[in-house]
Amino acid sequence: MLVVGFPAGAFQANCYLLAADAGHGCVIVDPGEGAREGVDAALREHRLTPAAVLATHGHFDHVYSAAEIADAHGIPVWIRPEDRVLLSDPLKGLGPELAAAFGSVSLTEPRDVRELGDGPLELAGLRITTGHTPGHTPGSAVFRLDSDEGGQLALTGDTLFAGSIGRTDLPGGDAREIASSLRTLLTYPDDTVVLPGHGPTTTIGRERATNPFLENGGGMS
């Protein structure tokens, strides 16, 4: 499997492209602010054909470029229904103070939006297991794929990071829900490679053993 990732925008949100191999179709996960240039470069370098955009959640630092990229390639954007409104009303996902600090953030909903459920997706020759992991936002999701080597990848968005977890103090955040979502993530095998929404790659086993925000199988300390 080919995985290309890079941080984009002021918030350095990780954007990922996943494909069975070079020269194949791909999915683009979380194209945030300023991601278009990096996405286009990866498509050229690896001869990839985009099949879909996937959003782990609707915060604008993860979907800022979703409409631009999806509409340019005529592909759909997949997002949980709970977060769909954020595609066109990004300030709704921020508190009043943050909204005032950012001022005007204008986004347009992509032409083709499809709502994620809990079943698997078959896209670009990849089988992607989707799961609902609310807490950071009501529509936060995780995407899992089997790697060629027999392990698993988990794209966790802003639910789980290396050494940290997602914040729950923005509109729609819920500490109890994220604790439940984290317990679900910690049922994954220890060698599951975690591709988070910000920061470096990690594994479920490493976070289980060392993440100071996890205790008692996924509760918040």
SS-based class = alpha/beta
Give the helix level as a range of percent: 10-25%
Spatial strand order of the main sheet:
1-2-3-4-5-6
Computed CA radius of gyration, to the nearest angstrom: 16 Å
The total count of strands amounts to 16
* Strand composition percent: 25-35%
How many alpha or pi helices? Answer: 6
**Major sheet, described briefly?**
6 strands, mixed
User: Uncertain segments of ≥5 residues (pLDDT<50)?
Assistant: 217-221
3D shape:
globular
Helix and strand run: EEEHEHHEHEEEEEEEHEEHEE
How far apart the termini lie comes to 36 Å
Q: Averaged pLDDT, please? A: 93
Summarize the SSE layout with pairings.
Layout: E1 2-8, E2 13-19, E3 25-29, H1 35-46, E4 49-54, H2 60-63, H3 66-73, E5 77-79, H4 96-102, E6 113-115, E7 121-123, E8 126-132, E9 141-146, E10 152-157, E11 160-161, E12 164-165, H5 175-185, E13 193-196, E14 202-203, H6 204-210, E15 214-215, E16 219-220
Parallel strand pairs: 3-4, 4-5, 5-6, 10-13
Antiparallel strand pairs: 1-2, 2-3, 7-8, 8-9, 9-10, 11-12, 13-14, 15-16
